[in-house]
Every structure is written in structure tokens, then in C-alpha cells.
Design a protein that fits this description.
This protein has 244 residues and is an alpha/beta fold. The chain has a single domain, classed as Rossmann fold (3-Layer(aba) Sandwich), CATH 3.40.50.1820. It is built from seven helices and eight strands. The chain has an eight-stranded mixed sheet, with helices on both faces. The longest helix has 18 residues. It starts with a strand and ends with a helix. It holds the Pfam family DLH. This is Carboxymethylenebutenolidase.
């Protein structure tokens, strides 16, 4: 699938982003893909291309653009457990500086930019995401109910968005949890909040997984769980973003 680097205007300057889209022209439903904390890198570009191959225009923004263009830290080709703690220590200050105010300001800019692309079909878009991106995407969907028709978050701390954000969701939702990230109690509380808000959702634990299971460049990667991720994501998008 073709791909290119873009610059998205935001209230705090230009945010670099990667876009992937189908060959052959035409207009396609838009998908905003939030990366994990390690940001835009080959595995995220490949996932964007994979999704674009199913007929979507996918944009992956640099979430921490205020700190510079991606990559913001030097990443190895493979993020093993021996290097992960030091890498997390480098990105954590950027995560902590990314306030809810910044998240929502950027979300408005990203969605406005995505919908304005000539290759993107009119109508609402979807937001999909990984790890910390899932929290940001949940807040995005809650704050932009008329613009986001689908939300899919994987191994993400979505419960941290809080009951208020969950209660404002109008998108259809899928939350795919790592087995190591949630307890039965926390999962029950999250699902009860979604039920109480009348959200159309699925929320499930992917068996035998640990945090980061979709990321093929990490020790957490689980190819079976990645396949289940596509099995859940693609039907959700097909239901909520009908193609022209």
C-alpha cells in the first residue's frame, strides 16, 4: 500500500504523521490510528498499510510532536525486555506531559485534517489504537461523538478515561485487553460502566496475552492475538464505516 509522511496543523505547531491508503484512487473511510508510547516506527507503518489494504485511509500521528518529529528516541529494531525499561523511562516524561487538554486539542486537529483529505470519504471516521494510545483514543471518541463512529483499543488503559468519558461514547466500541493488564473485577467495572451508558460494545480478554501483544517488534508479541485483533477490528469498521 502507498504511504507518505504528512504534516498536520495543530494549535501547537505541526504534527508529523504517517498515512497509508489504497492504490487506485477514489475515496475511502478514514481511520485515525494512535500509536503506543514508542511512537511511529516500522511496525506501526506496516499495521497502517495492512489496514489500508482493506480499503481505508489511515493516519498515524506523532502523539508527542511538541517534543520534535518522530522518532523521538533511538529505538532498536527489536524491543526486548532487557532494553524496555530504559526506553520506557525515556518516553514517560512525554506521556506525563501529554495532558488531557493537549489530547483533546490535538484530536480536533487530527480529525479535521483526516476528514479534509481528498481521498477520504465524507462522514464519520474510526479511531483505533494501542497501549497508551487507547486512553487518548477513548478520550477522542468521547469528545467528538458526531465525528467518530467506531473505537477499537488494544492492550490499553481505557478505564483510566473515567466513567464520565465512557458515558459520552456514541461510537461502537471494541476493547481487546491483555490478560496481564486487567483483573476480573476491573473488567467487570469497566463493562458495567459501558452497559450503564448504553454503549454498543465488546470488551474481552485475549487469552494468554501480556501488555503489547500486537507489537511484532517486542517480546510481548503474540501472533495469534494479533490475528484475533484483526478479526475484531475489521468487522467493526465494516459495520460502522460503510464503503462507497
Amino acid at each position: 500500500m502507498p504511504g507518505k509522511t504528512l504534516q498536520i496543523p495543530t494549535a501547537d505547531g505541526q504534527a508529523d504523521a504517517f498515512a497509508a491508503f489504497p492504490d487506485g484512487g477514489g475515496r475511502h473511510p478514514g481511520v485515525l490510528m494512535y500509536a503506543d508510547g514508542f511512537g511511529i516506527r516500522p511496525v506501526l507503518r506496516e499495521m497502517a498499510r495492512e489496514l489500508a489494504g482493506h480499503g481505508y485511509y489511515v493516519v498515524v500521528p506523532n502523539l508527542f510532536h511538541r517534543h520534535g518529529p518522530a522518532p523521538l528516541i533511538e529505538l532498536p529494531e527489536y524491543i526486548g525486555e532487557e532494553v524496555r525499561p530504559s526506553l520506557v523511562a525515556q518516553v514517560m516524561p512525554m506521556i506525563q506531559a501529554h495532558t488531557t487538554e493537549r489530547v483533546l486539542s490535538d484530536a480536533d486537529a487530527y480529525l479535521t485534517f483526516l476528514s479534509a483529505q481528498p481521498e477520504v470519504a465524507a462522514g464519520p471516521v474510526a479511531v483505533t489504537d494501542y497501549c497508551i494510545g487507547g486512553l487518548l483514543a477513548t478520550r477522542t471518541a468521547a469528545a467528538q461523538p458526531g465525528r467518530v463512529a467506531a473505537l477499537a483499543a488494544f492492550h490499553a488503559p481505557v478505564g483510566a478515561a473515567g466513567p464520565d468519558s465512557l458515558s459520552r461514547l456514541t461510537a461502537e466500541v471494541h476493547f481487546g485487553h491483555a490478560e496481564g493488564d486487567v483483573t476480573p473485577k476491573s473488567l467487570g467495572e469497566l463493562n458495567a460502566s459501558l452497559e450503564a451508558a448504553g454503549v454498543r460494545y465488546t470488551s474481552e480478554i485475549y487469552p494468554g496475552t501480556v501488555h503489547g501483544f500486537t507489537m511484532a517488534d517486542t517480546d510481548a508479541f503474540d501472533p495469534t492475538a494479533l490475528g484475533l485483533h484483526w478479526d475484531r477490528l475489521l468487522p467493526l469498521l465494516a459495520r460502522t464505516l460503510p464503503k462507497s
